[in-house]
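To assess whether the prediction recovers the assembly geometry, we first specified each molecular entity separately, as shown.
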Amino acid sequence: MDHNENNQTDILISRYLTGNASAQEIEDLFRWIQLDGNNKKYFQRQQDIWSYLNPAINIKDIDTGSAEKKVLRKSGIMAERHPVFRKLLVLWSRIAAVIALPLIALAGYLMAVHGASPLPDDVTIATEFGSLSRTHLPDGTAVCLNANSTLTYSPAMNGKGTRNVMLQGEAYFEVKADAEHPFKVNTPYMTVTATGTEFNVNAYDSSASVTLINGRVNVGVENQSMTLNPSEHLSLADGRAVINGHIDTEKYCCWKDGMLIFDDEPLVNICNRLQQMYNVEFDVAPELASLTFRMMLNGENISEIMRFLELAAPVRCELEERKTAGETASSRPKVRITPL
Amino acid sequence: MPMEKIKIDNETLLLAALKMDSHEAFVQIFRRYYPDLVFFVSRFIPDMETCEDIVQEAFIKIWANRKFLEIRTSLKTYLVSLVQNLALNEIKHRKVKTLYRNMYHEMIMSLPADEHILYTELNDAVENLFSQLDPEVLETYMLSRSHHLKYTEIAKKLNISVRTVEARISKTIRFLQSNLKDYKFAIFLTVVFQHLFMK
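The predicted structure of the complete assembly is given in tokenized form:
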């Protein structure tokens, strides 16, 4: 092999190893490799060195110890753990199988007769005012549920069926990717469908909204369907959907980290937001409604928030406890905000 | 360390013991080759769990067929061929997603495995040589090799001139070239540099 040819081959091999070789080049390489045993040896040596320098995995991550136990068990060299327990388990599973058979038949019969699946009841997670809850659904989706919210799902949602949840209030979803089984969030105001994305749904009241962080979702409002792209925010106003692009998603999602951000927001909006999450109701004097505030809350309670507002603007905040049993229209304490 | 050496050199003994149902021999072979083989398979299937499954399957097969093992080459080559075939099967027929499928790749993969150099062997050789290098020179080389920094970036980081960077790297390469002839490292260096230039 003269030097020039050698160099040519090296280029070919390096193109193959770096994934840059064309189909024709790979065929040429293959032909060269098959020419004689030394060529093949040469090529394999290059591959070894290449994979040493460009490792696909970290060899230190390989757990030889636990693999050894597994292999020894599977080869029958090492006894399975708890042999007595295992025998009992085998025996029990046989008994169970015998018992289960008529039960399955019965279930099948009942299903056929009633047309209803004998699945366990739906699961409901509810959060109190001023608290939030994180959970994983059976399909692997991570959910953060905001205060004063309810999420209902079927425990069988990891099966082949659809992935449906019911939401009242607000939640942040990190949907486990599964293109074949769309994930559906049903709310009284709209339906959000996703396959594997991160998004926030606010459905406390008719001014509901959806904020998309990653991926893509479809939002169905009445008979309309709209697609949201990342950093877009869809909100309902008087039953009509408005999409805003390039918004600061953090502003809508930071509640899951225990924060609230208001960026030159009118007082009336701030109060609406607060009464979604806190067990209070605001009564804002009309002349103050459009007064704007810029503030960041980090888990403060309602009386601390009231002090902030008083510090920031010439207003007075008063907490009015429910007076008499006769006034049952609202059971929540009222915060009255008036000009100073 | 010498014990280790004896263990490895006496593969014929290990194999004989294996045929006589020695658990100890099996475990020794397993410990010696498991990580290297998983690493070897990862060049075909970039998913560690699948790689581990394949290599475990290979060892289970070896134990099951221990009485009938006919190893004409070396134990290492035998093991490499076995896991390579299992990996190829995995790619062709089963669980592995089409993502990894590539006809030409398979063509090259189905070449009978020859004497490969496994990770540990290469690593021992390289580490041994690196330990003989001046630490500053080695650091410069590693920044280029492992961290893929450009010469100008390295110069800035180490507060030395680009010329010094070049000098140190070519010094390292010459040193490696002259000491790793057995492993044909000289060739890999050309490969690596062509790769860098093509980028």
